[in-house]
Amino acid sequence: MKIVDVHLHRVTMPRDYRYIAKTPEEVCRVRPGVESRYFIYELETDTGLRGIGEVSDVAARMKALSASELRDLLAGVLVGQDPLRRRRAWEAFFEAIPADTHPEYRQLVAASLDMALLDLAGKHLGAPVYELLGGRYWDAIPVSWVSYLRSADMLEGEIEQKLKEGFRNFKLKAGWSGFDVDYERVRTFRRIAGPDVHLRIDVSGEWEEEEAIQNIRRLAEFGLDAVETPISAVARWKGNDNPALVDERAEEVAQALARVRASVPCQIIEHVGDFSDAFPLALVKHRGVDVFNVIPAQSGGVTRTQRLIHLAEQAGIQVLFGSTVELGPGTAASLHLAQASKAVTVASDIVGPGFLVDDVIQSPLRYEEGCIRVSDAPGLGVALDPEKLKQYASKDDT
What we know:
Helix content is about 40%, strand content about 15%. It is built from 16 helices and twelve strands.
């Protein structure tokens, strides 16, 4: 079997902000704009099979390749390749990505190829992707609903609705609007949800070390279960745009997280996929965290994501899957890996099906009682919808 062509689609999908923010100004404080941009492509083989790849949620700051440039890059490396030699094809493509490519975009593009090759392999062998990744361990993945609301009064309706839908795990964004707002939101959440619903907050690196310790201790009175990215030393903008700022200080940052962890009565969670392996290794060495947040799309592909999961498992660290707000194909790729991974024991932020107004696959993935799962069909188990691709096609090549 050989790859003979690449078919690329540029998609712009509106986000559903009904549960996320009150005003356009508030939306912009979370992230600019109210829509997400994607590259969806199909690797066509001489046997007629097509493997789906998704470059997820491409931001303007990434200065991404144009659709035609990405298509030419994919075709230039992959046409004539045997897609079943997945590792070789992935390595050749990764080396061909221009060296000055934005670091997060480079990872997103590399990960998209991994999923497309796995989709082809699964279809060729007549097996779902999770069977190629060790076999299904979990029947479904619990999802942590993520709330971006900034005021406690706006939070009530959203949480009540999600509890009715069966969600038992929640993440509240924090650190943006001052501690008093965070305190009131956590207090309001616990009053509505009761003591048994899992709650974590995501600070995104908005606090300094001592500030984090003090704030977490105060919030702990409401039964806070976990805090994600509590300190500025590993702020999310560094991981997204300049991971070297953390990679070069991995030991120091890990020690800072370890001090916070030792000083508070709840779990500490940190992203690891968009940094080099030096950072998760330092976290293991210094016992800096309780949970790895791994985003497969930002980790560069399934092979590295599995390596991070195995590292966590050996170290006794739990794992959850984060999200770049993927469409159906990207969500399915994450779910196949999550369902095959024993260490994924914390509710994951697989939020694309809840945050986007629509999808480009024929049978969109849905939440059921706060969980999500993939089908048992071969490959990723999803099929593109030509009409949806046309409806949400971008108007330009960028």
